[in-house]
Design goal:
Length: 162
Protein backbone atom coordinates (compact mmCIF):
# COMPACT_ATOMS: atom_id res chain seq x y z
CA UNK A 1 0.00 0.00 0.00
CA UNK A 2 1.53 3.29 -1.10
CA UNK A 3 1.52 6.01 1.51
CA UNK A 4 1.02 8.80 -1.05
CA UNK A 5 -2.76 9.10 -1.06
CA UNK A 6 -4.65 11.39 -3.38
CA UNK A 7 -7.53 13.03 -1.55
CA UNK A 8 -10.39 14.71 -3.41
CA UNK A 9 -11.97 17.45 -1.31
CA UNK A 10 -15.41 18.33 -2.65
CA UNK A 11 -16.44 21.75 -1.43
CA UNK A 12 -14.95 24.91 -0.07
CA UNK A 13 -14.81 26.72 3.22
CA UNK A 14 -12.76 26.70 6.41
CA UNK A 15 -12.57 22.91 6.83
CA UNK A 16 -11.50 22.38 3.22
CA UNK A 17 -8.99 25.21 3.64
CA UNK A 18 -7.56 23.56 6.78
CA UNK A 19 -7.58 20.05 5.34
CA UNK A 20 -5.59 20.66 2.14
CA UNK A 21 -2.31 21.88 3.70
CA UNK A 22 -2.43 19.16 6.38
CA UNK A 23 -2.19 16.55 3.63
CA UNK A 24 1.31 17.80 2.75
CA UNK A 25 2.58 16.76 6.18
CA UNK A 26 1.39 13.22 5.50
CA UNK A 27 2.94 13.15 2.04
CA UNK A 28 -0.53 13.03 0.52
CA UNK A 29 -1.91 15.31 -2.17
CA UNK A 30 -5.13 17.27 -2.39
CA UNK A 31 -7.40 18.15 -5.24
CA UNK A 32 -10.22 20.52 -4.40
CA UNK A 33 -13.38 20.60 -6.49
CA UNK A 34 -16.35 22.90 -5.99
CA UNK A 35 -18.62 21.72 -8.78
CA UNK A 36 -19.93 18.31 -9.70
CA UNK A 37 -18.12 18.43 -13.05
CA UNK A 38 -14.80 19.16 -11.31
CA UNK A 39 -15.47 16.36 -8.82
CA UNK A 40 -16.24 13.83 -11.53
CA UNK A 41 -13.13 14.85 -13.50
CA UNK A 42 -10.86 14.41 -10.46
CA UNK A 43 -12.50 11.23 -9.15
CA UNK A 44 -10.61 8.62 -11.24
CA UNK A 45 -7.29 9.49 -9.58
CA UNK A 46 -8.67 9.87 -6.02
CA UNK A 47 -7.94 7.32 -3.30
CA UNK A 48 -10.34 9.02 -0.90
CA UNK A 49 -13.12 11.59 -1.16
CA UNK A 50 -14.11 14.05 1.55
CA UNK A 51 -17.28 16.03 0.86
CA UNK A 52 -17.50 19.33 2.74
CA UNK A 53 -20.06 20.82 0.35
CA UNK A 54 -23.60 21.29 1.57
CA UNK A 55 -24.91 22.25 -1.87
CA UNK A 56 -27.63 19.84 -2.97
CA UNK A 57 -26.55 19.91 -6.61
CA UNK A 58 -23.02 18.84 -5.64
CA UNK A 59 -22.89 16.83 -2.39
CA UNK A 60 -25.24 13.90 -3.06
CA UNK A 61 -24.18 13.46 -6.68
CA UNK A 62 -20.47 13.59 -5.72
CA UNK A 63 -21.01 10.97 -3.00
CA UNK A 64 -22.92 8.76 -5.44
CA UNK A 65 -20.14 9.06 -8.03
CA UNK A 66 -17.44 8.22 -5.45
CA UNK A 67 -19.37 5.17 -4.24
CA UNK A 68 -19.99 4.01 -7.82
CA UNK A 69 -16.27 4.41 -8.60
CA UNK A 70 -15.40 2.12 -5.69
CA UNK A 71 -13.37 4.79 -3.92
CA UNK A 72 -11.82 3.19 -0.84
CA UNK A 73 -12.85 5.98 1.56
CA UNK A 74 -15.82 8.32 1.15
CA UNK A 75 -16.71 10.74 3.93
CA UNK A 76 -19.17 13.61 4.13
CA UNK A 77 -19.33 16.47 6.58
CA UNK A 78 -22.67 17.83 7.80
CA UNK A 79 -25.35 17.86 10.43
CA UNK A 80 -27.70 14.96 11.09
CA UNK A 81 -30.34 16.85 9.06
CA UNK A 82 -27.92 17.24 6.13
CA UNK A 83 -26.96 13.56 6.38
CA UNK A 84 -30.65 12.56 6.32
CA UNK A 85 -31.26 14.72 3.23
CA UNK A 86 -28.28 13.18 1.45
CA UNK A 87 -29.27 9.66 2.48
CA UNK A 88 -32.79 10.12 1.10
CA UNK A 89 -31.37 11.53 -2.14
CA UNK A 90 -28.80 8.75 -2.51
CA UNK A 91 -31.37 6.00 -1.93
CA UNK A 92 -33.73 7.65 -4.43
CA UNK A 93 -30.91 7.86 -6.96
CA UNK A 94 -29.65 4.30 -7.13
CA UNK A 95 -27.38 3.90 -4.11
CA UNK A 96 -28.21 0.79 -2.07
CA UNK A 97 -28.33 0.44 1.71
CA UNK A 98 -25.29 -1.82 1.48
CA UNK A 99 -23.33 0.80 -0.42
CA UNK A 100 -24.37 3.48 2.07
CA UNK A 101 -22.98 1.44 4.95
CA UNK A 102 -19.45 2.26 3.74
CA UNK A 103 -20.09 6.02 3.78
CA UNK A 104 -18.48 7.88 6.70
CA UNK A 105 -21.12 10.46 7.47
CA UNK A 106 -20.76 12.52 9.51
CA UNK A 107 -17.08 12.29 8.69
CA UNK A 108 -14.30 12.13 11.26
CA UNK A 109 -13.34 10.52 14.53
CA UNK A 110 -15.28 11.52 17.61
CA UNK A 111 -12.67 13.71 19.30
CA UNK A 112 -14.98 16.62 20.15
CA UNK A 113 -13.74 18.74 17.25
CA UNK A 114 -15.43 22.12 16.74
CA UNK A 115 -12.93 24.36 14.95
CA UNK A 116 -12.04 23.87 11.26
CA UNK A 117 -8.50 22.65 12.00
CA UNK A 118 -9.75 20.22 14.65
CA UNK A 119 -12.40 18.89 12.26
CA UNK A 120 -9.73 18.43 9.57
CA UNK A 121 -7.57 16.46 12.03
CA UNK A 122 -10.52 14.23 12.96
CA UNK A 123 -11.17 13.54 9.26
CA UNK A 124 -7.53 12.68 8.56
CA UNK A 125 -7.38 10.49 11.65
CA UNK A 126 -10.41 8.53 10.43
CA UNK A 127 -8.81 8.02 7.00
CA UNK A 128 -5.61 6.77 8.67
CA UNK A 129 -7.61 4.45 10.96
CA UNK A 130 -9.47 3.00 7.97
CA UNK A 131 -6.29 2.50 5.95
CA UNK A 132 -4.42 0.87 8.82
CA UNK A 133 -7.28 -1.41 9.89
CA UNK A 134 -7.78 0.33 13.21
CA UNK A 135 -11.28 1.66 12.55
CA UNK A 136 -12.89 -0.97 14.77
CA UNK A 137 -10.95 0.24 17.80
CA UNK A 138 -11.70 3.97 17.51
CA UNK A 139 -14.99 5.84 17.61
CA UNK A 140 -16.36 7.53 14.51
CA UNK A 141 -18.86 10.37 14.72
CA UNK A 142 -21.09 8.38 12.36
CA UNK A 143 -21.27 5.61 14.99
CA UNK A 144 -22.62 7.96 17.68
CA UNK A 145 -26.28 8.81 18.11
CA UNK A 146 -27.44 12.30 18.89
CA UNK A 147 -26.13 15.74 18.16
CA UNK A 148 -22.73 16.21 16.58
CA UNK A 149 -22.16 19.19 18.89
CA UNK A 150 -24.00 18.10 22.06
CA UNK A 151 -23.13 21.28 23.97
CA UNK A 152 -25.18 23.39 21.54
CA UNK A 153 -28.89 23.65 20.97
CA UNK A 154 -30.13 21.84 17.83
CA UNK A 155 -29.89 24.06 14.79
CA UNK A 156 -27.50 26.57 16.38
CA UNK A 157 -24.12 25.01 15.53
CA UNK A 158 -22.07 26.91 13.01
CA UNK A 159 -21.02 24.68 10.13
CA UNK A 160 -17.64 25.76 8.84
CA UNK A 161 -18.25 23.95 5.55
CA UNK A 162 -18.94 25.28 2.08
Amino acid sequence: MSDALKILIVGEGPVADALAPMLDVLGWSATTATTLAESEAALPSADAVVVTSHHEDVDGPAIRAAIAAGTSYVGAMGSRRTQARRRDWLLANGVTEGELSALHAPVGLDIGADEPGEIAISILAEIVAERRGAAATVASISDRDGAIHPDQEPGTAYCPGG
